[in-house]
Amino acid sequence: MTDTLVELDDVKVWFPIKSGLVLDRHVGDVKAVDGVSLTIRRGETLGLVGESGCGKSTLGRAILRLYEPTAGRIVFDGQDISHLDDDKLRPLRRRMQMVFQDPFASLNPRHSVGRIVGEPLRAHGLAARGELSKRVRELLEIVGLPADAMGRYPHEFSGGQRQRIGVARALAVNPSFIVADEPVSALDVSIQAQILNLLESLQNDFELTYLFIAHDLAVVRHISDRIAVMYLGSVVEVSPSDDLYTNPLHPYTISLLSAVPIPDPVVERARRPILLSGDLPSPANPPTGCRFHTRCPYVQATRCRDEVPPLRALAGEHTVACHWAQEIKAGQIAPREREPIFEPGPHEPELVPPPT
Questions:
Q1: Distance of CA 214 to CAs 56, 105, 178, 188, 211, Å?
Q2: How far is CA 318 from CA 227, 241, 243, in A?
Q3: What are phi and psi of 39, to 5 degrees?
Q4: How far apart are CA 177 and CA 93, in angstroms?
Q5: In terms of residue numbers, what domain contains 121?
Q6: What total number of domains does the chain contain?
Q7: Tell me: the pLDDT tens digits for 113-158?
């Protein structure tokens, strides 16, 4: 048994673009995931971050084979599952589960909580008829819900309670690996903390491995052992959690972290956010070379536009896909100046920071 539970090797997930009166002409592809290589170790939480539309959720679903990869290899516990058929995948489904983003849409409103949580047990034949209710009560108790929740329906619960139901459903088949697809983004901040604490507690109790997908950098730092940063279908940086926040190397990561509010007014006023120009390019027609070069404040000459930077190790386990990461970190390359977002009109006062 190795330390690696999930291994991705140059995984691509492309969705065809059809045209014509009967949609029979293939005119292109949406390259949602384009050449991702990652490893997820047993018992760890790998955070996956990036802006909306970068391919995070698509990658998570491809790992669970909810999407079939266009190319590349997905290896789960030493077995290549990239193109297994449904019959061969079925035994592995018990070991891989998902907690979905929206607790209001991921639960069937016509089914009771007992039926929702017990469905995986029935589907995999893991509990006899007389034992099913007992097992469902145990699962609800594990996630902090009362036993009488079995007979109630999803609309009778709050958002946080519904997400707990989703977690109980994922735990029902005793999985080894869980993909948590932005499980707290639709919840209030106080409820987010409860769900995160629940996930950490369950990981310790049941030796779970998580892929935690999110766009909130503070949440990811709290729960993750390592973090992978994704941009336009590709992974641009992978690092231990604390190292990523104290020593970001990729310009995209540096820009993201510069926009995270700091709860210290003195530090917040003194620092300078790095603004990205333009919009996210279309995944149907990504830029050549480094995909970030169209928005990068540190872009250099032609190399960034012509050469695809490999994901290379620069400091221990800290890997980054940037030609100039070392020079940027050493201060040898400065960010380009940007025009101010706000310019006061003739009758508007200038925005000045309060005195320190």
A1: 8, 18, 14, 15, 10
A2: 10, 10, 8
A3: -130, 145
A4: 10
A5: 109-174
A6: 2
A7: 999 999 999 988 888 777 899 999 999 999 999 988 999 999 999 9
pTM: 0.89
| 107 contacts 162 by C-beta, under 8 angstroms | yes
In a domain, 166, yes or no: yes
At which of 122, 150, 174 does a domain end? 174
Q: How far apart are CA 28 and CA 31, in angstroms?
A: 9
Q: Which phi and psi angles does 43 have, rounded to 5°?
A: 80, 0
Q: Which residue has the tokens 């005793």?
A: 174
Checking if the pLDDT of 344 tops 50, the result is no
- Residue 322, classed as helix, strand or coil, is coil
Which residue(s) pair with 313 in the sheet? 319
Domain assignment present for residue 26? The answer is no
What one-letter code names the amino acid at 331?
G
> Nearest to residue 46, comparing CAs of 1, 5, 105?
5
d(CA 168, CA 206): 13
Distance CA 56, CA 73 (A): 17
What per-residue confidence (pLDDT) applies to 261?
A: 74
The answer to whether position 279 is within a domain reads yes
Average pLDDT over residues 245-274: 83
Tokens 């896909």 sit on residue: 321
Write the pLDDT tens digit of every residue in 159-188. 899 999 999 999 999 999 999 999 988 788
The angle subtended at Cα 96 by Cα 77 and Cα 16, nearest 5°, is 95
Q: Quick one: DSSP state of residue 95?
A: T
With contact defined as beta carbons under 8 Å apart, do 200 and 223 qualify? yes
Write the burial class of residue 199 (CB in 10 Å: 0-12 exposed, 13-18 middle, 19+ buried): buried
Residue 313 lies in a domain: yes
Q: Where is the domain boundary, 154, 174, 194?
A: 174
Distance (Å, whole) CA 150 – CA 116: 9
**Per-residue DSSP letters for 82-104?**
TT--HHHHHHHHTTEEEE-S-TT
Secondary element (H or E) of residue 123 = helix 113-123
CA distance 187 to 184: 5
Q: What does the alpha-carbon distance between residue 152 and residue 112 come to, in Å, rounded to a whole number?
A: 5
DSSP 286: P
**Number of other residues whose CB lies within 10 A of the CB of residue 83:** 11
3-state SS assignment for residue 221: helix
